[in-house]
Amino acid sequence: MQLDVFTLVPQAFAWLTEQRPLASVLGGELDLRLLNYRDFTPLRSGQVDDEPYGGGAGMVLRVDVAAAALDAVYGGVPEHRVVALTPQGRPLDQQIVEELAAEERLTLLSARYEGFDERILVHLCSDAISIGPYVLSGGELAAMVLVDAVARLLPGATGSEESTRVESFSAELEGGLEYPHYTRPAEFRGWHVPEVLLSGHHAQIDGWRRDQSRLRSAG
Ligand code: ADE
Fold first, then answer.
1. Are 60 and 114 spatial neighbours (Cβ–Cβ below 8 Å)?
2. The ligand 1 atom nearest the CA atom of 135
3. Is 160's pLDDT higher than 80?
4. What is the number of structural domains in the chain?
5. Ligand 1: which residue has its CA nearest to atom 10?
6. Closest protein CA for atom 6 of ligand 1
7. H runs (alpha helix) in 75-139
8. pLDDT band, very low/low/confident/very high, at 171 (cuts 50, 70, 90)
9. Ligand 1 centroid to 131 CA: how many Å?
10. Are residues 83 and 170 both part of a single domain?
11. pTM of the model
12. CA distances, 219 to each of 153, 177, 182, 215 (Å)
């Protein structure tokens, strides 16, 4: 996947790109480009944002700057999906993540401060996504959440396909929550691992896990 992220703080993504699963797929299944609006602004002194018309607090990412950035990189508004990260967007869930992970090309736009000039969302983006009903200081953290969630679904991102096939919200678990996990020691301070997990009886273990997943999802 070719994944482009437009941001004012590309360096914020450094930590994420050094960690697995991202590090495992970079240069292979994932070609990640971090692009700074400032490098494309047509305005003098590198300006990218401005005061809101009508007054009010904060600064707004300018539509001409966002358009210039897309023009420079794609020669216009790209044919592929362009996703703006904003609290006004569609709430992110695993279904959207899976959908986006299947795209060959994807562009994310993040903004700082008060966000985007509305014309960016209407004319330059295909999607607007929120990572939750709260306001962050900028879209970078939201973009990183999306990049991480998408990257771990790419082939070779995690050690085993199994780990992303059977997990919370997966079809394998009927879209529900994952069952509980335990590891050694089998007993600690009198806290025991459920007997069935120690039994080696795979059919029973599968059944127990399915039941636990359903119980958690129901309540
Ligand atoms: N930018 C600021 N807050 C955000 C949120 N909750 N989701 C996506 N982008 C954001």
1. yes
2. 3
3. no
4. 2
5. 86
6. 87
7. 94-101, 118-119
8. confident
9. 6
10. no
11. 0.93
12. 27, 10, 21, 6
